[in-house]
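Fill in residues.
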């Protein structure tokens, strides 16, 4: 059996295993990566080069800072301010969803759900109504806005690392509106969908007691990440390390942890913050980077690119359409992190074969994959987290319940992003 065939079979088995055994995804990716190296498909001396350490460090550092941010109760206070301005349950649900979306543009989606969902639960208990619709709206809104900035979602971080895009590139890129504005317009359209879905929820909302925040330093750290990433984006590549963004995030996390240790004088703070970092995602990504490096070395990426080109008969619009909507369908059932990590080099290969700018395909991929995860309860980690929170409260969420809200919301957002991306970047 030739090397390319072995690589394809191994890659297919890896993907199937990731789908069937989601609880051990990291181990599956690492074992697959080891097999690629042991079989010589990926030379040992190229292993470290295939891992995007900037992405790994960014995720770890941001998660650490977010842990401190959650502990400070600042998200709850911000949510309290929003609730004070809402007249009824409908607007409370939509406002919380919009708030979750705003936070998620700068903070990991799962962390956002963990911040905002407890507020929805509190409101539901006071009004004696089901929190299920509100938590679903929070989860899917978090997924949508995650693609708005470089630090909003792992998929955005992957795109930034692969396509050499900095923080500001998500706002304006080559003199044109960036992904941020496309996502925000999609969010606006999908907000009208939420307003329609919850049009009957008109129970009045009573003002709740405000959360008290005693430590504003984690908020400063989180804002600091955004500001320093913007500053770093202005430094020419030749004058900064390739892992500059990751070093910024990890550095600010360490500042926050050390400060907390000095205040509390308890070494336990180091473990408390470090254990909140999602090592499963980090190990999964590390393994996938190596696996993708292996199939790229074997020439599989080029073959996949050729399949897309043949299916579209060299028509860029057809390729763009295929990438967007295939990504929506696939990401509805497969976590979008491994999918995007795999497809970024594929889209690059397609663009190279057709001699076109790859960015329209990159943006289409992110729009389809990130927003597409909203369709089903298992399509994104934020959805799984939201359903887990509800389960702890005694609420079982069926796929039908979830999709009643998620499908119209997702289709509205994706269709808007699909049209705008093509009109701006065609």
């Amino acid at each position: 059996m030739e090397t390319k065939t072995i690589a394809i079979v191994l890659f297919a088995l890896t993907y199937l295993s990731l789908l069937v055994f989601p609880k051990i995804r990291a181990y599956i990716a690492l074992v697959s990566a080891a097999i690629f190296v042991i079989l010589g498909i990926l030379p040992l001396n190229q292993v470290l080069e295939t891992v995007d350490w900037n992405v790994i460090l960014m995720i770890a550092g941001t998660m650490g800072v977010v842990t401190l941010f959650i502990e400070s109760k600042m998200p709850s206070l911000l949510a309290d301010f929003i609730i004070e301005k809402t007249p009824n349950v409908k607007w409370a649900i939509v406002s919380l969803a919009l708030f979750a979306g705003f936070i998620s543009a700068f903070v990991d989606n799962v962390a956002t759900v963990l911040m905002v969902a407890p507020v929805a639960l509190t409101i539901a208990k006071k009004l004696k109504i089901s929190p299920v619709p509100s938590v679903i709206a929070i989860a899917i809104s978090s997924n949508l806005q995650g693609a708005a900035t470089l630090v909003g979602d792992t998929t955005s971080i992957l795109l930034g690392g692969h396509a050499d895009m900095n923080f500001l590139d998500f706002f304006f890129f080559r003199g044109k509106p960036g992904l941020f504005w496309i996502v925000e317009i999609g969010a606006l359209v999908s907000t009208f969908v939420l307003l329609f879905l919850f049009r009957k929820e008109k129970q009045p909302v009573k003002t709740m007691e405000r959360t008290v925040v005693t430590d504003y330093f984690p908020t400063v750290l989180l804002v600091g990440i955004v500001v320093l990433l913007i500053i770093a984006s202005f430094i020419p590549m030749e004058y900064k390390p390739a892992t500059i963004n990751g070093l910024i995030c990890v550095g600010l996390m360490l500042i926050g942890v050390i400060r907390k240790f000095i205040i509390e004088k308890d070494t336990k703070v180091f473990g408390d913050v470090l254990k909140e970092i999602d090592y499963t995602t980090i190990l999964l990504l590390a393994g996938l980077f190596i696996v993708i490096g292996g199939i790229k070395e074997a020439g599989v990426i080029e073959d996949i690119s050729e399949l897309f080109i043949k299916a579209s008969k060299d028509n860029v619009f057809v390729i763009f359409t295929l990438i967007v909507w295939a990504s929506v369908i696939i990401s509805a059932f497969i976590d979008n992190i491994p999918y995007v990590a795999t497809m970024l080099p594929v889209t690059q290969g397609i663009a190279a074969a057709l001699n076109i700018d790859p960015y329209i395909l990159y943006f289409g991929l992110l729009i389809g994959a990130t927003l597409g995860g909203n369709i089903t309860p298992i399509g994104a980690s934020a959805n799984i987290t939201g359903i887990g929170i509800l389960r702890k409260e005694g609420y079982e969420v069926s796929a039908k319940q979830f999709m009643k809200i998620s499908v119209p919301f997702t289709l509205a957002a994706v269709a808007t992003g699909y049209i705008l991306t093509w009109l701006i970047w065609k």
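Residues 399-425 form the longest helix (27 residues).
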